[in-house]
Every structure is written in structure tokens, then in C-alpha cells.
Amino acid sequence: MRNGDSPLKGWLEILIGAVLTAVPGLVSAQVSLTTVVDLAQRNSTTVKLAEADVQKAKAVLAQTEDVYVPSLAVGSTVGTSIGFPTGQPSIANASMQSLVISFPQRQYILAAQNGVKAASLRLKEAREQVALDASTAYIDLDTVERELEAAHQQEAFAERLGSIEQERAEAGVDPLSELLEARLTAAQLKLKRLHLETRAAVLSKQLATLAGLPVGSITPDHASIPEIPAVTADQTARATAEIESVQMLARSKQMQAKGDNLSGRWPQISFGAQYNLDSDKLNDYSHYYQHFTPNNVSFGLSIQFPLFDLGSRAKAKESVADALRAMIEAEQAQRQNEVQIAELTGNLRELDTLAEIASLKQQIANEQLQAVLAQLELGNGATPGPGAQAQLTPKAEQLARIDERQKFEDAQDAALDLAKARLSLLRALGHMEDWLNELHGK
Questions:
Q1: Residue at 398 is within a domain
Q2: Range of the domain at 327
Q3: What's the distance, CA 2 to chain centroid?
Q4: Does a structural domain hold residue 386?
Q5: What pTM does this model have?
Q6: Listed range (48-62, 67-81, 246-260, 263-277) with the worst mean pLDDT
Q7: How far is CA 116 from the centre of its chain?
Q8: Which of 39, 333, 346, 396 can bridge 211 by disulfide, Cβ–Cβ 3.0-4.6 Å?
Q9: Could you give the CA distance from residue 78 to residue 90 in angstroms, rounded to a whole number?
Q10: For 378, what's the count of Cα atoms within 13 Å in the CB-facing half-sphere?
């Protein structure tokens, strides 16, 4: 649950998901976009893997820091010997050791800290990608369902048109070709409706898989979809979580390489202590050593000066190569994102214009439909005679209704393409979190 979300809201979303999951045969219910996104993020394998990576990175950091904390081990080396004793006759022993001073270790700690930041950013990026996928599928399904409703209306109008043409053909008013055209229109509309039903089924499956819910249990709530900001490339771009994670990983590799380079050049100081409880009952230890005591303690510092270690030098060169590769990958990710922003910006201009054109065509078709209905009700006002405008028939009404519904569907498709492009540009500009905050405030 994000900052600012109420605990009640979070528990409510979990309860909705649990109920829908526990009752597979439950009738499809309206589920908000916010709930679907949250369920998708909780159910996502990618997010779970990223969370595991964060836990691993934190464990690596703890491991690099804990070398300064003394480790304690206890044990026993009880045994007997024949002849001269070969070891201390310890009944029990305890040892303690820790790192005191190490110049490379400081770099390893910094590398691990950057590794935790990189893993956290990858987790954020994974959550944003899942949110984008869930939002896109949800908006797509919402659009298709409204188009399906219009398609069913078109089929009803086409059926009525076919009946009218059948009557006119039988009466000899229209040729048979007009009837065949009407049947062709009905068949084409049926095919389009079947295509929309297939598309809706695929989207429903995709959305249910993302959210971890039974297929068909989600009905989009159009009111829960906030308006997508009309962003442009002129807005200040922020570093995306993906780019920041790659950059942070490159810094981690650099710190690792620096530490490996120092490990073969600088001394290392360690602390050690040991306690032994000895006994000569098993190997007659005191017979050979006059000053035998049961309690023995030793402690001190161990200083190591690296003089010649080809293995460490080779390891340092390997780490430098890894760091260089990580830096190049970070630069490549940045350039690819800039290219994506440029492409999305160009596409967005075209899609924005196409959406405006589709909307205007829908409005024109609606006005033409109203004009046809008015003429059918009141007449065209023309006086009978040569050259007078022919009176409209019910056939014109059905054609106008079919055309208006088609323009409505075209406008919905154009708006959907525009919404997808805007969401993609939001993410490329690093503003995806703004969309998520707006979504959770809906």
C-alpha cells in the first residue's frame, strides 16, 4: 500500500480480490482500475522477483558490514594421542575474530549500498511496468465493451435494413442488388462484432491473469479511469526508475572494481581472540609440558601486507571490465529512452489529430442522423414536381444509424490509441508515478 492510501481502502481492495478469487463462479462485477492495478502489482511474478532481489541485495550489504562485528564460535577437540601429544587437549574452546581496518572493505560496502538502491529502483520499475500493463488492458477492455454495445446496435439496424430491402425488392421498388448489399452489410457487421468479442475475451483473460482473478470476473468501471494528462516532450523529463537502476548498478560495479584494486595494494588488520579449557586426562599432556594450565587465553591483531598476488590483480582487471560494461549499458539505456521519447512525441501528435478528426466525424454523423430523423418525421419541405428532392425512406434512417455507430466506434479506437501513447510517454518521461498518484486519488 502506498503512502497516502488509507488502511481501510487497502484492506477493501484485498477483500475484493479474495472474494473474486475464492468464488470462481461469481457473476462479473465492476472493479475499479485502482483495485485492478493494486491486485496486479501484488500478483505479478516480475514484482515478486524484484522484491526477492531487494532482499538479496540487503543481505549482501549486511554481509559486507558485519565483517567488522566480532564473530564467536565454540567447539571442542577432545581426543587422545599415543606417544608425544600432537595438539592441545581442549575440552572446550571459543574463538572470536573480526576485521578492524580494511581499505577495500569500505569500497565493498559502498558497492553493496548502491546495489540495494539499484534493486529498489528495479522493484519500482517493475511495479510501474505492471501498472502500465494493467491500466492499458483495463482501458482497452473498457473501450471494446462500449464498442461491442455499439456493434450490437449496428446489427439490429442492419437486420431492420434487410427487412426493409426485402419488402422493397418483393414490391419491385429496389433491385435485388440492394437486398444483397444490405445482407453484405449485415454480414460485415457480424464479422466485426465477432472480432470485438474475440478481442474482449483475450483482454479479459489478460486482465484476469494480471490481477490473479477468475476469467470474466472483471467488468471495467469507466468512471474509475482518470483523465490521462496530455504530456509532451517539452515537459521536464525525469530519470526513469529503469535508467536510474542501471546507473546505480554501474556505480556499484565501479566501487567493486575499486575495492578489488585496493585489495592487492593496502594492508589489512584483523582482531582475533581464543579461549581453551584444556585437560591432560586423555593424553598425559602435563608429562611433556611442565607449565600446564587448564585455562588458556590468547588475543591480538593480525596484520597482512600484500606483496605479490597475481590472482588479486587479475580479479581487479575483471572487475574494471565489468564496471566499464555497466557504464556503457547505462549510457545506452539513456540514449534508447531519448529515442523512444522522440518517437512517442511524433506519434502522439498524429494520434491527437486523428482522435480530433474521428470525434468530428462522429459529431457530423450524429447531426446527419438527426437531420434524417427530422425529415422522416416532418418531410423535406419540397413541393412535388420535376427536380424536387426525393422524400427519405426508413432505409435512409437505418443507414444513417449504422454510419453514426461506426463513427462512434472509430472515435473510441482513436481515443484508445491516444490514451496508450500518452501512458507510454508518461513512463518514458519518468512521470508514471504522477499517473499512479492520480489513479489512487480517484
A1: yes
A2: 7-378+391-440
A3: 15
A4: no
A5: 0.80
A6: 67-81
A7: 19
A8: 39
A9: 6
A10: 9
